[in-house]
Design brief:
Helix content: 25-40%
Radius of gyration: 42 Å
Number of domains: 4
Strand content: 35-45%
CATH architecture of the largest domain: Beta Barrel
Distance between the termini: 74 Å
Largest sheet: 6 strands, antiparallel, barrel
Number of strands: 22
CATH topology of the largest domain: conserved putative lor/sdh protein from methanococcus maripaludis s2 fold
């Protein structure tokens, strides 16, 4: 029994010593955390949109005359230049019409010559009173009618020439041609049959819609002399590797959606963009003269409130509620709640259990070695 009592007493003594040692160590060593100083810097706020790619010029090619397709003179999907021959319609009926129109014009001119000669004689005979006034008027009317017939024949000839030209269908624009919807031997009806489609490829347009608030915030960027640059990315691409220029803003908002349409023009020499693609667009939306930027990891959430932990001159933590703005690339704009130079905890937040807790701060950069000047709005 004596030995048992001594053993229990020794274990209790060791436990108390361990607890005392732990408490002493806890009081001596405060947890280490990384802090960064809040810096005010001019910042451009960017806003993200979803856009769609469209070609500046799109043509649905239809024939101007009816006839059977005699030749398809292009490879589907290839690039063509304006004036390249795409289709040929059987020209023989239109050549025959042209010859008939030429013959009609020759006949009309011959009749006009005869009518003018008779009119000239009638005028001389009238002066000598050899013919009646009625016969004179008839010859004058016949001359005028013959001249009108010549004009009509000339118009018919010009129309026949145009119809013959229209049997050769050329590309009205430079761009990429689509598939041939009508092949050789099929009948094409004038102004009805769709032969193929043709779209321009360089440059391209990217259309996107913005809400009214964004337009009000960003109106200072858009002037007749200044067209802001936008950044564009496609599905499967990282970030926004393409740069375009905003060149059009619609003149009224859509009353059903409350949005305003924007358009950016982007070079496309390699054919990367195709009509119908969806694109991600980043546009400058707001200019902040003195934005407070902190690392996004420093911002914590308590229900609907946001807050950060500061470290004061005594190395004690302080909870501070803030109003946050947009964020991008790991940084968040703080609209209110912080002042330049204050130290914000960005690493080791899990070690802080309550406000006023002592810590060992280690000063680090807010993010990397430089403070960025551009922030994208969510």
């Amino acid at each position: 029994m004596t030995r048992l009592k001594l053993s229990l007493l020794g274990l209790a003594t060791l436990a108390l010593a361990a607890c005392g040692s732990g408490e002493q160590n806890g009081q001596q060593k405060a947890p280490a955390v990384d802090v960064a100083q809040v810096v005010a810097a001019p910042t451009t706020v960017w806003r993200d949109f979803t856009g769609r790619v469209e070609a500046p010029e799109t043509v649905s090619l239809r024939p101007r005359v009816s006839g059977y397709i005699e030749k398809v003179a292009f490879n589907e999907g290839e690039l063509v230049q304006r004036g390249d021959v795409l289709f040929e319609i059987d020209p023989r009926p239109y050549r025959a019409q042209l010859r008939a129109a030429e013959a009609d014009l020759a006949r009309a001119r011959s009749e006009m010559t005869l009518a003018e000669n008779r009119a000239g004689r009638a005028e001389r005979l009238l002066n000598s009173r050899a013919i009646s006034r009625e016969e004179y008027d008839e010859r004058m009317a016949a001359r005028d009618s013959a001249r009108a017939a010549v004009n009509a024949a000339e118009a018919a000839l010009e129309n026949a020439r145009l119809d013959l030209q229209y049997t050769v269908i050329e590309a009205p624009i430079s761009g990429r041609v689509g598939r041939a919807f009508v092949t050789r031997g099929n009948l094409a009806n004038a102004d009805q049959t769709l032969l193929t489609t043709l779209v321009s490829v360089d440059p391209m347009y990217v259309y996107f819609e913005s809400d009214q608030r964004t337009f009000v915030d960003s109106h200072t960027f858009f002037t007749p002399e200044q067209r802001p640059q936008v950044r564009i990315g496609l599905a499967g691409e990282d970030g926004y590797p393409h740069s375009g220029e905003l060149d059009f803003i619609d003149n009224q908002l859509n009353s059903h959606t409350g949005t305003l349409q924007f358009r950016a023009v982007i070079p496309n020499p390699q054919g990367t963009f195709k009509p119908g693609q969806f694109a991600r667009v980043k546009m400058p939306a707001e200019q902040l003269a003195h934005a407070m930027l902190v690392n996004s990891r420093a911002v914590l959430t308590d229900q609907d409130r946001r807050y950060v932990y500061l470290v004061n001159d005594k190395n004690l933590t302080e909870r501070r509620e803030v109003v946050v703005g947009p964020q991008q690339d790991g940084l968040t704009v703080i609209r209110s709640g912080l002042r330049p130079g204050e130290r914000v905890v960005i690493n080791g937040l899990q070690k802080i259990y309550f406000p006023g807790m002592p810590v060992q701060p280690e000063l680090v950069a807010m993010r990397g070695s430089e403070l960025p000047r551009e922030v994208a709005k969510r």
